[in-house]
Amino acid sequence: MQLPHSKAAQSYKEHVRTIELNLKDATSGERDDSLLSMVQKRLDALAEKYQYNEEIGAARYKLYELQALVHYFNGHDDDALDFINQAIETRGENYPKAEKLKQQLSPGDSYVSKTTNPDKMTKQQRRDQKIGLEGWLAFFVVGVSLGILLGIINLFGYPSVFNDLASIQAQAPEFVAAMTLALWFEILSNVASIALAIWLIVLLAQHKKLAKTVAIIYLVSSALLFIVDYAWISSIFDNFNLGSEAQRELSSAAGDSGRSIIGAFIWVPYFLVSKRVKRTLTK
User: Is 211 exposed, middle or buried (0-12, 13-18, 19+ CB in 10 A)?
Assistant: First the structure.
């Protein structure tokens, strides 16, 4: 027959084991923030129940150890160090797992993005560790912002184009119909790109990890839309044997397509491998 305090200890150990497994799942491979948040809530509930329970004895050190690990993976070094020291104090002695974590929290740790809380760093420290919207990442932000401005300016030019088409409706109805459809594709593409770019700027300003994915989608989709637009306009011009002025318009569209493709080839790899992107977009 188990005594009540034995049941409490057994229940405590089972809860600790479950949280340890959840923490391992949340931090194996790519970090799962939602699962890590759930681990924090479960750990807080467990601490509230057992933190001052003398029946658990020195085994309560696991509460502090797990808190240290959760804060470690959330990038809160100072808090993680406080908790692991409390774990050692509660246990009554140092132990290998605690010593290993303290070493990883020491200055000079190479995995800065994981073990350092940028909010607690000075501006110079953030610059030294390549954290923040600076360098090439700042250049990208400026480029996207200019793209938004140019896209909005371009939208204001379409009414005059539609007026020009209306003036030749009687002479070339088939051409007008084909161009009208292509122009509406351009307008909708432009609006979608502007909306995506604005969302991207907001995510970058908030240092959201989602910004990396949105940036890649924005770059690839922009290139594809320019290619489709160029192919469409080129097909229309070829079918109707338009003159030199039309060819200049086509050359301009080809230039836009080329620049968007080059941009995608440059910036997509940057977002995939850049240390600044990895260390800045962490939320």
Answer: buried
